Amino acid sequence: MPKPQPPEPRSRPTPWPVAIGTAAQRAGISARMVRHYESLGLLAGVGRTDSGYRQYTEADVHTLQFIRRSRDLGFSMEEIAGLLTLWRDRSRASSQVKRIAQQHIDDLSERIAQMQAMQRSLQTLVACCQGNDRPDCPILDDLAAPQAAGKSNTAVHRKRQTLPNS
């Protein structure tokens, strides 16, 4: 009969404040990013030990998690600074937050449309290329062609006219 194993000791949570490595781990980011956010003023008033080591409180880690989630959603540092200010202001109007989020959605939509246009252009260029052993390459020709802003190369434009739904 196997000998019963003692229960595993429960790990006690690290008391606050914590060092930068622990704070970074709890926030899901690197220590380098913690220092970066602090240098940008997104994380203010971080305490230090007598020997100069940073000490992060539970509120600091919560702020770092807020920043990480905001970055995951693609907000810029400037937008995150504004969102942090609103988050900390309990008398804020949610309309201010919604305006920032809606502007970000609009920016994302514009970037998506631009990327889809790039994808369509590249698909057309690839369709124009024979991909054989000959040196002629409409992809390189198009990239090297001087073009007016917003105008496509003539060879690509001709190919677009012959391709359905392009």
Radius of gyration: 27 Å
Average pLDDT over all residues:
89
The helix/strand order is: HHEEHHHHH
Which range best describes the helical content: under 10%, 10-25%, 25-40%, 40-55%, 55-70% or over 70%?
Answer: 55-70%
Question: Could you list some keywords that capture this structure?
Answer:
166 residues; 2 strands
Write a structural description.
57% of the residues lie in helices and 2% in strands. By secondary structure, it is mostly helical. Strands 1-2 form a two-stranded antiparallel ribbon. The chain starts with 19 loop residues before the first helix and ends with a helix.
List the helices and strands and how they pair.
Layout: H1 20-27, H2 31-39, E1 47-48, E2 54-55, H3 58-72, H4 77-88, H5 94-128, H6 138-144, H7 154-162
Antiparallel strand pairs: 1-2
Helix pairs in contact: 1-3, 5-7
